[in-house]
Amino acid sequence: MADTAAPVRVTDCGCATPFGDAAATHAALLRGERALVPARVLGKEGGDPVPLALIPGRTLDEDAPPGWLPTVRRLAASMPEGDWGSPRRPVFVTGSNFGVGGLYALRRSGDLAFAAWGAPPTCTERLREDLGWGPDVSILSHACVSAHLGLLEASRAVESGLAEEALVLSFDFLSPFVAGGFHALKILNADFPAPYRERPSGAIGLGDGAAFAVLSRGRGEWVLEGQSLFNEMHHFTSNQPDASGFTECLGPVAAAARGRRIWFKGHGTGTLEAGRMEVRAAAQAFPGSPLVGWKGSLGHTLGSCGLVELAIAIESVKAGRTPGTIGDEAPAMGDNVAFSGFANGEFDGVVCASNAFGGAHAAFLLTHA
Amino acid sequence: MPEMHIQSVFTDEGRDQTPAEIRERLRGGYPPGATRRMTTLGLMVGSTLSRLEPGVEDAIVYATGYAESCALEGFLDSFPTPSPTLFQTSIHPSGVQQLLIGRQRAVRELLPLSGGPLLGFHALRAAFLSRSARVLLCGGEERGTWLLDYGLASDRTFAFAAALTRESGGAPAGRATLTRAEGAGELGLAEWFDLLHGRRGFDGMVAPGWRLELEWHASPT
Q1: Distance (Å, rounded) from C-alpha A229 to C-alpha B186?
Q2: Which of A217, A252, A283 corresponds to the end of one domain?
Q3: If I label A362, which of A109, A111, A319, A349 is the partner at 20 to 30 A Cα–Cα?
Q4: Interface test with B, best of A107, A186, A361 (most B CBs within 10 A)
Q5: CA distance A182 to A148
Q6: Model confidence pLDDT, tens digit, residues A217-255
Q7: Is A362 helix (H, G, I), strand (E, B) or coil?
Q8: Nearest Cβ partner of A180 from B79, B106, B110?
């Protein structure tokens, strides 16, 4: 079911990536810069070099308290003040990693200090205390569509009148746990990602990322429409061969976007099969709409990618220019793939889409109010 | 917020059973060989949820604080040669995906939640906010081993699945109503499970500003 009727707006939005805030990230993407660099997959314990993009000053190996905490604190300082976590201003925290780097460090070192931030409930509770929020902080975690679910739940809370405003915070920071896991699946390897490019083998990169959005009803410059989900449940790590999951998810978004010119911010991790399906589904649902993906530069920020890339999409519209698909060159998987940046003033909105394990899909339409 | 009717509810509690005993008890509900890689939580949630026959337009709200603790422990112990199977099995929301992928049951809306002292309330609120005609509210926990020593896993093993609708339908088993109220309270996942498992009525605060009324009809499913 798409939430096409929800008059929900984004009043504030921001992100933190290895390039800096949303404006700095957008500028770096326009310059075609790549945050990904080769790094040992298990940090200080070595392993193969793989493309990772870490926040400057942070290492892949976890500290206690977590080395990512200052980044989240800085991001939180840029949020509007308010009684977040109160019944009228609930918080929705999303991500796929939380303090899992601490679990890895705990198991390797036995140092109890790592336990305090380990599991999603404990990590979020420590963060809630640190940021001074009230108790109404819920957690949504659905791998790489997690942030979309936070936006959806926050939208529903606001749209129903349950909340005056809702805050969505998403964060994912890399660790040997997650890098080692993707490396074991053989999709994180020595190659750099080239999303939407036809080549013999696929590869992804991983990146640190955090972002927030404040949602309200009737206020704010940015409208979220047509929020849509679909879960194929075909296979843990692959999609239905007919790409029906992509089509099912994009259908309600296309209905919401009918009659409007849009550009498409895709998921585009750098895997081949999913990339081809996404390119094809985007072209069918949004004929003539240019498709871009930024994970060739930032890496895949996992459960937070939907919110990190929303912040960059908003920055792109504000600046009037959309960064192209970083890390790419011909041949593309389709004519709709945009390798170069383009002026976006003639467009009415942008579709933001993400995908996840289990054949999970999420997408929405972002327009200027 | 409007009330919701509990059409059906199924629960399972591991009590003192070992994971092997739980697997043996539940394996008959799955195709031969299907349970070999399933987690205890996946088996138990799957067994309760499957009885509700999930359909593509049902919304599924899946709540678990600590998820697949034993797969997570196994994955952490597999370094420096991490196991790809345990990696994907330990990723939230693997518990509910194990059943649905096994049966190739697509579902449009899946909302996997984690959380602590308010997880039961947050799961209920997510169900109430869904626009689907039928919401399948499910979840559970599996008892951890070494993670439990650090307070990073559940000390209980349980699972539940309940079908909620806005329309009362034929003969609902019960009714849940969430309303605004002054005061504070908490409803964790285990507490919510205990209410369902015992078909116990409840009238009290479940979060700051929120009150739950839960009543059961004479002949619960």
Answers
A1: 30
A2: A217
A3: A319
A4: A107
A5: 22
A6: 989 999 999 999 999 999 999 999 999 999 999 999 999
A7: strand
A8: B79
Whether residue A100 lies inside any domain: the answer is yes
Looking at the structure, do residues A237 and A340 belong to the same domain, yes or no? yes
Architecture, CATH, for domain B4-172: 3-Layer(aba) Sandwich (3.40)
Beta bridge partners of A91: A137, A167
Enumerate the residues of chain B whose CB falls inside 8 A of the CB of residue A108: 79
| Mean pLDDT, range B124-140, rounded to an integer | 98
Q: Tens of pLDDT along A76-116?
A: 999 999 999 999 999 999 999 999 999 999 999 999 999 99
As given in the structure block, the two tokens for residue B92 are 């939230």
Range A56-95 burial, b when 16+ CB lie within 10 A, else e = eebebbbbbbbbbbebbeebbeebeeeebbbbbbbbbbbb
Asked if the C-beta of B15 comes within 8 angstroms of chain A's C-beta atoms, the answer is: no
pLDDT tens, residue by residue, A170-195: 999 999 999 999 999 999 999 999 99
B119 contacts chain A (CB < 8 A)? yes
**A232 and B106: CB-CB below 8 Å?**
yes
Residue A289 Rama label (left phi>0; alpha psi -120 to 50; beta) = beta
Residue among A96, A136, A139 whose CB faces B113 most closely: A139
pTM value? 0.97
